[in-house]
Design brief:
The complex is a heterodimer of chains A (389) and B (135). With 389 residues, chain A is an alpha/beta fold. Chain A has 13 helices and eight strands. The radius of gyration of chain A is 20 Å and the shape is globular. Chain B is of the alpha/beta class and 135 residues long. In chain B, the strands form two sheets. A five-stranded mixed beta sheet of chain B has the order 4-3-2-5-6. Chain B has a two-stranded parallel ribbon with strand order 1-7. The longest helix of chain B is centred in the N-terminal third of the chain and has 13 residues. Chain B starts with a strand and ends with a strand. Classes of the chains: A alpha/beta (389), B alpha/beta (135). Chains A and B meet through loops of A and helix 2, helix 4, helix 5 and helix 6 of B.
Chain lengths: 389, 135
């Protein structure tokens, strides 16, 4: 038994106007200072006010939101007593909104203990709208929550199936001004979601098609969105692709690239999309050398029209296509290219390996690395070497 | 030799398997928390309870419990005999079992969410115990 979950999704031009249909009294917008400064939070607040809402904007969410930020936001929520919560931003703001919402409904909970096992009975106090302002995270369409334990320098892969947003507003106008670097990093996040959702051990018939479609769209439109941020069609397609990939991997799971990337990001503060996208080719090479029949790169390559006749050739073709995409969008393909020194990597290796092993994404890999293999994956990714073990 | 599940012999065999496992010792090096593993047996008056005292990568004690009040473990994981059989024969991923409610877990969930690898190694050790299930 497994499940398929989706929010109601309003997408395309003027999708933001869907907020006019909400019924309620108080809305609590969870966002960050940049989006307030850019006027995006006010834009959302104005629509909500037009629908008769009182609105509070909480703009203290930092990249890679901490447990402390979640507790602080939940306390502000408890004071304001909203009946709608709006997560506005990239994955950090939307994930933080989900976690704050859970603590608002369950003040006794430890945010580190947010889990998919217990039944929470959410929606007694409020419901959740998610509005992505980047095209990558897919958080608007998943129940995943990634928080950071700052003291332990560790990202925590959390979430409850109940924290899936009720409504996702996928309005491309929010990403028209997105800078090229952010476009590239978040686009690689979307691709990694699509590939890992299709290839992880929790893949299923309901999510497969979404992952394939999203992967195809990222290959087709990310270079255009990166080259010309004003390309409306490319921006719109990438925005949709990110949500479709979110639906895909959110109903399967993410996998080893996320385990390696979460661990790296918490220690070296590499942006999430860059980190997981960087590891994706190495993980494909690693998994392709695992048990025969465990991977399905041939099916993915076939759908992407990549020439191959064996699973090994498919993995190589897929890695080649990803490398080509990374070149077009000028993404680093090695940890050294991210500005990490070899000595710093070596000094942090124990923590990186341990945290990767304990990441909930790692265990869905079709080939789960032991500690030595994880260490070698980091070392090979540092040097940009093809995985040969 | 196969051990009957659930039984005192089976859980003691699991204890030995765990204490032989370097992978478990490393993965669970900081784990502190004892368990009741509870199996609902069709036709039985009471479920079968297996106790395991898991501490810093080792299993310090393990036995079949006849009186549920004998211990107050930090964690309780329960399921039907059929679902335990699926887990022990690798036909049901334990995470999938927990998310779908086929297995239930009570205890400090924050500790569990941070100990993915120890959980995986524990299950791996379970699957290495030669096991015989009731017909």
């Amino acid at each position: 038994m497994w499940f398929f979950n989706s929010p109601e999704i309003a997408f395309g031009e003027e999708a933001l106007s869907y907020l006019e249909r909400l019924e309620g009294k108080r809305a609590f917008i969870v966002t960050d200072e940049v989006l307030v400064r850019l006027g995006q939070a006010a834009r959302v607040a104005d629509v909500l006010k037009g629908a008769g809402f009182e609105v509070m904007i909480y703009d203290k969410v930092e990249p890679n939101p901490s447990l402390e930020t979640v507790r602080s936001g939940a306390a502000a929520m408890a004071e304001y007593q909203p009946d709608w919560i709006v997560g506005l931003g990239g994955g950090s703001a939307m994930d933080a909104a989900k976690a704050m919402w859970i603590l608002y409904e369950h003040p006794e909970m430890d945010p580190e203990g947010i889990n998919p096992i217990e039944i929470l009975h959410l929606r007694q106090k409020a419901r959740l709208v998610a509005i992505p302002t980047t095209s990558g995270t897919g958080s608007e369409a998943t129940w995943a929550v990634v928080l950071t334990n700052v003291a332990e320098r560790r990202k925590l892969g959390l979430g409850s199936r109940e924290d899936l947003p009720d409504i996702a507003i996928v309005d491309p106008s929010f990403v028209m001004g997105m800078p090229p670097r952010l476009t590239a990093d978040t686009g690689m996040d979307a691709l990694t979601h699509a590939v890992e959702g299709f290839t992880c051990s929790f893949r299923n018939d309901f999510s497969d098609g979404l992952c394939l479609k999203a992967a195809e769209m990222v290959f087709d439109y990310l270079p255009r969105a990166y080259a010309d941020g004003g390309d409306v069609e490319a921006r719109t397609k990438m925005h949709n692709a990110a949500t479709i990939a979110g639906l895909g991997f959110g109903n399967a799971l993410a996998s080893l690239s996320h385990g390696l990337g979460h661990s790296l990001g918490a220690v070296f503060h590499v942006p999430h999309g860059l980190a997981v996208g960087l590891f994706l080719p190495y993980v494909i090479e690693f998994c392709a050398r695992g048990d025969a029949g465990a991977t399905r790169y041939g099916e993915l390559a076939y759908h992407l029209r990549l020439p191959c006749s064996t699973e090994a050739e498919a993995a190589a073709a897929l890695v080649g296509a990803i490398r080509s995409l990374q070149a077009k969008i000028e993404e680093p393909i090695s940890l050294s290219g991210c500005g990490i020194s070899r000595s710093d990597l070596a000094a942090q290796m124990g923590l990186l390996v341990s945290n990767c092993g304990n990441d909930s994404s790692t265990v869905t890999s079709t080939r789960i690395p032991d500690d030595l293999e994880t260490k070698r994956l980091y070392e090979y990714a540092y040097d940009g070497k093809p995985v040969d073990f | 030799m196969a051990y009957k599940f659930p039984s005192d012999e089976w859980v003691k065999a699991l204890m030995e398997e765990l204490n032989r496992s370097q992978a478990y010792a490393e993965a669970a090096a900081t784990w502190e928390g004892d368990f009741y593993f509870i199996a609902d047996i069709p036709g039985a008056e009471k479920p079968a309870l297996l106790y395991m005292d898991l501490w810093h990568g080792k299993c310090r004690d393990a036995f079949l419990v006849t009186d549920e009040t004998a211990k107050t473990p930090a964690f309780r994981m329960s399921g039907s005999l059929e679902n335990w059989k699926k887990v022990l024969t690798k036909k049901l991923d334990p995470l999938q079992g927990l998310v779908t409610g086929q297995l239930k877990l009570k205890g400090n969930m924050a500790a569990v969410m941070k100990s993915v690898k120890a959980s995986k190694e524990l299950v791996e050790a379970c699957t290495r115990v030669p096991t015989e299930f009731p017909a």
